[in-house]
Amino acid sequence: MLENILRQVQNGSMSVEDATKQLAPFENLGFAKVDHHRKQRQGFPEIVYGENKTAEQIIGIARALQAQNNEVLITRITPDKAEAIQNVCPSYVYDNTSRLLYWKNSEQAGVDRKGYIAVIAAGTSDISVAEEAAVTAEVLGSKVHRFYDVGVAGIHRLLHHAEDIQQATVSVVVAGMEGALASVVGGLVAHPVIAVPTSVGYGASFNGLSALLTMLNSCASGISVVNIDNGFGGGYNAALIHQLIHRGNA
Amino acid sequence: MLENILRQVQNGSMSVEDATKQLAPFENLGFAKVDHHRKQRQGFPEIVYGENKTAEQIIGIARALQAQNNEVLITRITPDKAEAIQNVCPSYVYDNTSRLLYWKNSEQAGVDRKGYIAVIAAGTSDISVAEEAAVTAEVLGSKVHRFYDVGVAGIHRLLHHAEDIQQATVSVVVAGMEGALASVVGGLVAHPVIAVPTSVGYGASFNGLSALLTMLNSCASGISVVNIDNGFGGGYNAALIHQLIHRGNA
Amino acid sequence: MLENILRQVQNGSMSVEDATKQLAPFENLGFAKVDHHRKQRQGFPEIVYGENKTAEQIIGIARALQAQNNEVLITRITPDKAEAIQNVCPSYVYDNTSRLLYWKNSEQAGVDRKGYIAVIAAGTSDISVAEEAAVTAEVLGSKVHRFYDVGVAGIHRLLHHAEDIQQATVSVVVAGMEGALASVVGGLVAHPVIAVPTSVGYGASFNGLSALLTMLNSCASGISVVNIDNGFGGGYNAALIHQLIHRGNA
Amino acid sequence: MLENILRQVQNGSMSVEDATKQLAPFENLGFAKVDHHRKQRQGFPEIVYGENKTAEQIIGIARALQAQNNEVLITRITPDKAEAIQNVCPSYVYDNTSRLLYWKNSEQAGVDRKGYIAVIAAGTSDISVAEEAAVTAEVLGSKVHRFYDVGVAGIHRLLHHAEDIQQATVSVVVAGMEGALASVVGGLVAHPVIAVPTSVGYGASFNGLSALLTMLNSCASGISVVNIDNGFGGGYNAALIHQLIHRGNA
Amino acid sequence: MLENILRQVQNGSMSVEDATKQLAPFENLGFAKVDHHRKQRQGFPEIVYGENKTAEQIIGIARALQAQNNEVLITRITPDKAEAIQNVCPSYVYDNTSRLLYWKNSEQAGVDRKGYIAVIAAGTSDISVAEEAAVTAEVLGSKVHRFYDVGVAGIHRLLHHAEDIQQATVSVVVAGMEGALASVVGGLVAHPVIAVPTSVGYGASFNGLSALLTMLNSCASGISVVNIDNGFGGGYNAALIHQLIHRGNA
Amino acid sequence: MLENILRQVQNGSMSVEDATKQLAPFENLGFAKVDHHRKQRQGFPEIVYGENKTAEQIIGIARALQAQNNEVLITRITPDKAEAIQNVCPSYVYDNTSRLLYWKNSEQAGVDRKGYIAVIAAGTSDISVAEEAAVTAEVLGSKVHRFYDVGVAGIHRLLHHAEDIQQATVSVVVAGMEGALASVVGGLVAHPVIAVPTSVGYGASFNGLSALLTMLNSCASGISVVNIDNGFGGGYNAALIHQLIHRGNA
Amino acid sequence: MLENILRQVQNGSMSVEDATKQLAPFENLGFAKVDHHRKQRQGFPEIVYGENKTAEQIIGIARALQAQNNEVLITRITPDKAEAIQNVCPSYVYDNTSRLLYWKNSEQAGVDRKGYIAVIAAGTSDISVAEEAAVTAEVLGSKVHRFYDVGVAGIHRLLHHAEDIQQATVSVVVAGMEGALASVVGGLVAHPVIAVPTSVGYGASFNGLSALLTMLNSCASGISVVNIDNGFGGGYNAALIHQLIHRGNA
Amino acid sequence: MLENILRQVQNGSMSVEDATKQLAPFENLGFAKVDHHRKQRQGFPEIVYGENKTAEQIIGIARALQAQNNEVLITRITPDKAEAIQNVCPSYVYDNTSRLLYWKNSEQAGVDRKGYIAVIAAGTSDISVAEEAAVTAEVLGSKVHRFYDVGVAGIHRLLHHAEDIQQATVSVVVAGMEGALASVVGGLVAHPVIAVPTSVGYGASFNGLSALLTMLNSCASGISVVNIDNGFGGGYNAALIHQLIHRGNA
Predict the structure, then answer these.
(1) Does residue H112 or residue C109 have the better pLDDT?
(2) How far apart are CA F143 and CA F12, in angstroms?
């Protein structure tokens, strides 16, 4: 490709200015381009990690994104910060449980992607992280089926939903305490499982370390793990796989 | 009781020598006596932790115990050490899988205690620890049903045995890697579960830490935990509970 | 049993509807049934982990349980949350020290089970966890004898109560800091000991890790361990063993 | 489905024996069936974790699998054990670098699945784990492109291959020491990245903990992590996603 | 001694009541007696760990101690709690820096013990822990010389005081961050060094773990270590050694 | 030198008083002198760790330093404490982002040292630590170029600045989460890199441990590491190296 | 003192050469002198940490020490290395259990110091560390009483020896596993206790971490701790305190 | 620069081939060029991490390097591997203590750089790591002064060399166990200190963690840290700084 551009410059079919743009340091590597293409191709909005940013910083980024008609998804926003941002960006939606703030371009017709993601949570205390996964996946264009409070201490609760879970395209399993749910789900399904350990628990849960280790050591195949309480990561990975499998609504 | 003895001394019905024996420092506390009574009452043999003892030390202890017609159970004995001891104590039985060495007094008629202990192991690699639990419980007079290779990654293998496990008096669950089996069993049964984490695994299993934390954080009630690879502890606790529940063969 | 039901369907002695109910996925496995039977058979109330539930969620669960005339035990309830719940459920009892909220069906005549559980606490700072164990066991129908402030740094305080502790059916040992009490009690008694490490301490206690490791490594036999500060787990395990040993008030 | 079967039994179109088979405890749950179907549908062989199994145990399992004409993949086999097994199963292939032993049914025509998996390794020391991922994926029917020795300390080595990596369907990134490669790759591609930390390193790498934490904390989206040195897990997850995206050779 | 008492009972020179008192369970063991003697012999007050006790509990204990004219030392008292106690016990002294609350019997003439304890603190941030050590030792009757802000990053500050430190009877070294001061002092003196790590620091000090490990691994002989921030332990150990060396004011 | 002074005393060319001053314990060792000379020679102000000092303590130290016309740099000062100090020392400058408080002697003409330090931060959340490094280096007389928000998840952002970073004399790399930026920068430049891990992140970042381990295990040469969040240390080390390389404005 | 020497130089009563020697860098500080005096005054031999030294290095050091008629104590010597050294230094004594190699100057009449050190070991596996403490103390001139196999799981074994232990001048408590013995001994005695954790144990003992934490968190006063398996440190500290208390055979 | 090249292509002064080479992906970024220039400009040889490479792999790399007349430095080579390589590359020098294997181009006249690096080791056991630092720096063209066995437990040994250490351009401090030496040296000198923790020690040294934490938490300014046992890193960093300060032999 490089030689191509150079030949065009040589024979005058491309101006130095245009070639400079295409060959500017990181454009030359291709990844910035890919970055742009990805959004158009995949309909994935720009993700902003909101935890350590001020409302002002977020508003600045949000306006820039909206100017390009891009969707916006901001994670880990407190209600107060959400309110401050919504005062300026009233079309933004804030979800209390998942602490996500997002804006979807209403002009972009909803994707009607086949299949769904199963978001499975062990206990009621894991629901806020599970919702971060679920809403993330939904904003990214996936359908989500929620299976909450199906922890392994009452295995029949999970088994009752086994068929629905098995028919999902990909599962996100959210669990704190001993985090055993991921292994059991992993053994039940033939699709990828993204495991999200949570910091729910006390004492020897060591703020989620217990669930994290459990999931990393799972004897079931097809499980991979994201950071403790990283519901966003769970939802993003699931949506990424989901849309690759069912792109073109196939 | 103290006053009683003193009154007997005062009125001459007990000699100073006899009173001295009964009131000697730790006899006065009762625990040494209890120690003796425990063996007679419960048929529990003396347990010797064999790992850091020489064959000579163990032979010495074993002879003293046999002299009192007591049963003997020695843990963590290598085949070499077992052979050295058996040369001197040919009636001792060595179990290769559990690395236990023991001697049962043939004169003591076998207890025909009701009920059984379920020893449940997640994978084939956990079997040596599971056998340490099982053989310990058997030497201590309990019947044992073994359920091996029933890890949670194929939950149907466990569920297939659910009824047999539920009818046990107490369960010992042995699992390495993510150790999730304890929670699932704990949710299935209405009896006490002794969980034994094992060091089976690699990487983030951190030599059994993962399974240990899983079991300590179990969301199922009725589970308590012993040290990593402590099959003996699992079997001992189970047998202790079992024989208290079914003493008098009830 | 399955074949039995099928034959009844075949010969018309059971309707398809009734068979469906009995053979529905997890009923077929037996654990849901067992779950129901367990309460009737054992008089054990449903346990609700209250820490991450809202007052509204708890009220909902509580009403459902009371509707079935079941007893209710909710753990880790703050005074504020307790008050909010009691406004709606005035018959509920709240225990400040143990932070337990419970309701006992007055119609169910109190069990007069033989024997008692010894709840033993090392220091005054461990008392709230010890009370969680003690009240849990009491709500579950066991008698409890309390032995508080008997830490090993003044071993005579413990030895003074040795006989009373030895006559218990099962002991719960609650200790923070170095947690050595479990080993000493374990060496004194011939019954099962449930050890509960607490987060009492500072510096190298690492929020209870020190006591937890101590208890897991105990050189005394017959000790098993629950999570740090898990007084409920200690009381539940003890009550479970106690009622199995003394069921039928024997 | 259950009601369906029962109606057939009722109207005599299904024998009690056949219904019993289909409704036997865990068949009723559906997962065992799924298990069977999965192999036929996906061409995935049975995976055997070889580390703690004897040659004899493995030969037993292998014969059973071959009897059903199933492919076989056994992980973590030492050369000695491989030789012992190959003496009995001469058609088995052993790969020295990845320590995998496998048998592919020659009758099953090779899948010609579209796309490929990029297996990317940071250093030469990570190659054995990378090969475990690559060969696993290949045995499971995926094409693999290898990119080795492209660690971040010489970022141009990685960027040189950026385009080839970006065109993969899924990437497996294998790295020890600081494990930073996963984040850089994650930022370059628009497909899922499975990160495999390795125990390569010394001192504060703490046997792979450093690389594991790096990967779990990645600021790049679309990364999920498996256990330290779990090349198999990396390859399995990648192949699972790959074949779901390109099933039907699409 | 036991036989002696019994003979007196036998010959009537001691009443059963008096013998009962002396032979009551734990009196018979001798440690409770020793406990009493220790206070009289050593002038050591009763120590109360104040952190988890209410003001009411402490007032109760304090009154009981004062009733016996015993000195009182209570550790880890917040200013608020101190004020509440002083309202009831106005003769109690509260030291803000060390958070110690104590009462010294004015009738007991001050000991004029030879020698002194060197309390050495690395930085100004370590002073509150150092003062807990120093005041503890003073309340226990030792003279204390303070050497503060003599951390190893400016070794001349310490060396300037080398002679004074060398002439102490025992040293208490208090240091956070890297805690290196203990080793340097240990290499300078020929008397015992009690090392007290503090939680001063941030990041990789891990709340005092760094200083604790440093002190435990000291290459200097004659150093022993107490818990993180345990100024009391440092002062108590030092005073105990000091008064044994210089008892009888020698 | 010592012999020299003594000869001068012997021949009367130096008074005993003057010799005493020069030979006083730690002066004799030379390091205190060096300490003085260092400030004059290097223009480095005295550094005060402000975190655990009261405003009063800091004012006292500051006045002493100013009395000698020395510059002052105080780290980790909260806005409140800064205000209290500035009330007394109005010429002091407080920087909100870096929490540094400092005073530069206006009489000392600014150094016009060649070259600059590159302060590179991975994310916006790392900026406060990065600013502590940058302002520290500036107060110590170095020019600083800032490169913020150039984390590895979008490697082109960093590469865009590669040339500017390569031309720096020394780099300070500030990164939290996985901390991978240090390795990438280390591979791009031929000058020393001081890596500063930050506590930015959540879950398995374990308050900066993840970034710390990453940086310690870097496969790039020329990287050394300071404590978590120790921006001051990063800036100080960089300025020290910078001024040694470009002393005499060369 | 400095001024004194200078005045002597000034008035000619001391030569420049003599003053130079006395004022040479570290002589001027006094610690090197003290170092020499310490040996003569205390009769303490030079201690050599043998673990990482070759036989040749040790022989070199040993000869230098013997040349000055100093006693020699070398720790952590394997039998092989001991034999190699004894071939050259036949008068050296090697103790197999403690792995100590030492040489005592036969001309120096044995000290007949009052009192004794109690070396107390929990289990038989702790004896090698306990012997390192005991023999170290003996080589340093103290009498030692050994109390072995008195772990807390059979508290009466310890209490049986309570009086003998209480009459010691100082105690060294050696324990692995849960390490609880230190707290119990600390509560029984009125003298300093040096606690030595050992690496005896398995699983969650984490190579002695469990015992170390137990001892650091002891609720008993008067306990200080040395490194894991540091029997030498325990013996040295005890002997140091012992000889300071009973110097002059008092 | 990019525009420049393009203009040359446009006006025909540069061929497409030449422009392609200069603008090829990573050449365009400039770092590969820098990489080449660095060697010529700095005389730094290529570094090979030898630990996980076979003799064959190393010989291959070595020959390629020698073909370009580049110097070679290979770390962590066992004597066996060194011998195998030397059989093929007889001009290579192997250093037993540091386990370094290197080849210096004899045609390149030795640099006579001003100043020297101080390599300071705490104990004799740290010497192999210290030598890895020292020989690395020497191969990279720096003069090295060694100061060994100057640990802080005998501070006078270090102070005796204070002046020589202070006059170095940069110091490398190598220490295991408590690692306190880095802080003391850091407080003595006005130049950068590279601290290298070693794994020397036992018990709570946790394989170098103790020394690592000590060095990271140093209260002395001007210290930065490399990985445990990373003598190479210490030497490389020091040589890098040294040659930047004294380039042009200034």
Answers:
(1) H112
(2) 50
